[in-house]
């Protein structure tokens, strides 16, 4: 549905986006993840026709962002990084104003406003001035203006930036709901965010695509080793627990990470493709070592992200 081919953007001599290619399917919630300066905002501005690319092309619902920008804009809602709110306007007034700007026909303006107020939970602040709202509610108004013309594609640039934790949860929930019947692209430099909200993630760094996959697959593919933590008695008779663990096939390293009176915790590294938990339990128990806890550690998206961005540098 969205096709991006070799898209690049220079600001003077600064290359902000370099040869970006990817696809987005209908109904997907896609995340752009990357540190500041990665090119997320620039890419979004090109997809929403606010900025022409230096080279490459992109089509949205089959419409070219350069040649058919009116068609693209009709079908796309955009929340810019700094939402363009008129702080002295009242919420309802502002949304009706944006609806008119967006070319919603006169007889459908009030129903459009109603729809976006309902979708974004703005009923209770309909007559309030935007400037008097909390940042969380202002962000909802920003999202409401983006969906006022009921676009199929919603592009949200850092939708939760500057919000407090409660507001972040509310906005994420709102995005998840909006994503049920729309295609959404959102950007974030916060890892748990894309993990929770997005079905697929594109990792950008210095204008380049570093990886694209589901959060789960990224974790799986990039995991270099598996880490298991075991808490058990320090020894079984005359054999040290650490030696028992080190002798298990597939284990590449064992390190004691904590010690209590009767037990130690060990961090075990092993090949990524095998879960050794059962074997660890069997070995310890058969050696008469009391086992207190056994858990596998997930690699966080954060670890992966750092790994990718560092690999890219080398
Ligand atoms: N208007 C501009 N003029 C010159 N350079 C810019 C402009 N906007 C962004 N850049 C540069 O382009 C790069 C990508 O920026 P941006 O797309 O804003 O990244 P992100 O949104 O991921 O933080 C950065 O190096 C930034 O400094
Ligand atoms: Mg940005």
The average pLDDT is 90
CATH superfamily of the largest domain: P-loop containing nucleotide triphosphate hydrolases
The topology string of helices and strands comes to EEEHEEHEHHHEHEHEEHEEEHEEHEH
Instruction: State Rg.
Output: 25 Å
User: What is the count of structural domains?
Assistant: 2
* The top level CATH class name of the largest domain: Alpha Beta
Structural class: alpha/beta
By DSSP, the count of extended strands is 16
Q: With helices defined by DSSP (H or I, 4 residues minimum), what is the helix count?
A: 11
Task: List ligands, each type once.
Answer: adenosine-5'-diphosphate, magnesium ion
The percent of residues in helical segments reads 25-40%
Contiguous uncertain segments of 5+ residues: none
Q: How large a portion of the residues is in β-strands, by DSSP E?
A: 25-35%
* CATH fold assignment of the largest domain: Rossmann fold
What is the molecular shape?
A: elongated
Question: What does the main sheet amount to?
Answer: 6 strands, mixed
Describe the structure in brief.
The chain is of the alpha/beta class and 314 residues long. Helix content is 34%, strand content 31%.
Overview of this protein structure:
The protein has 314 residues and is α/β, with parallel strands linked by helices. 34% of the residues lie in helices and 31% in strands. The chain is elongated, with a radius of gyration of 25 Å. The two termini are 34 Å apart. The structure holds adenosine-5'-diphosphate and magnesium ion. Adenosine-5'-diphosphate binds at residues 11, 14, 16, 34, 36-42.
């Amino acid at each position: 549905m969205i096709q991006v081919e070799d898209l690049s953007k220079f600001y003077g001599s600064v290359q902000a986006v370099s040869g970006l290619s990817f696809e987005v399917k209908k109904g997907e919630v896609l995340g752009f993840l990357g540190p500041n300066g990665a090119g997320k905002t620039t890419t979004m501005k090109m997809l929403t026709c606010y900025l022409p690319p230096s080279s490459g092309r992109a089509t949205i619902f089959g419409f070219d962002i350069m040649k058919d920008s009116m068609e693209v804009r009709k079908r796309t809602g955009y929340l810019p990084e700094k939402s363009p709110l008129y702080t002295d306007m009242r919420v309802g007034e502002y949304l009706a104003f944006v609806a008119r700007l967006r070319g919603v026909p006169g007889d459908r303006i009030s129903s459009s406003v109603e729809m976006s107020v309902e979708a974004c939970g703005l009923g209770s602040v309909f007559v309030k001035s935007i400037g008097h709202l909390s940042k969380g509610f202002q962000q909802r108004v920003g999202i409401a203006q983006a969906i006022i013309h009921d676009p199929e594609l919603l592009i949200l640039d850092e939708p939760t930036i500057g919000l407090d934790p409660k507001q972040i949860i509310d906005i994420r929930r709102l995005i998840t709901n909006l994503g049920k019947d729309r295609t959404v692209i959102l950007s974030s430099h916060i890892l748990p965010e894309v993990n929770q909200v997005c079905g697929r993630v594109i990792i950008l760094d210095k204008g380049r695509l570093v990886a694209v996959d589901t959060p789960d697959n990224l974790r799986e593919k990039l995991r270099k080793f598996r880490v298991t933590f075991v808490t058990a008695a320090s020894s079984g008779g005359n054999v040290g627990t650490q030696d028992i663990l080190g002798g298990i096939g597939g284990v590449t390293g064992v390190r004691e990470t904590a010690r209590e009176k009767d037990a130690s915790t060990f961090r075990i590294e092993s090949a990524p493709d095998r879960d050794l938990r059962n074997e660890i339990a069997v070995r310890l128990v058969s050696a008469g070592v009391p086992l207190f806890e056994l858990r596998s550690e997930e690699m966080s998206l954060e670890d992966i992200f750092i790994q990718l961005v560092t690999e890219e540098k080398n």
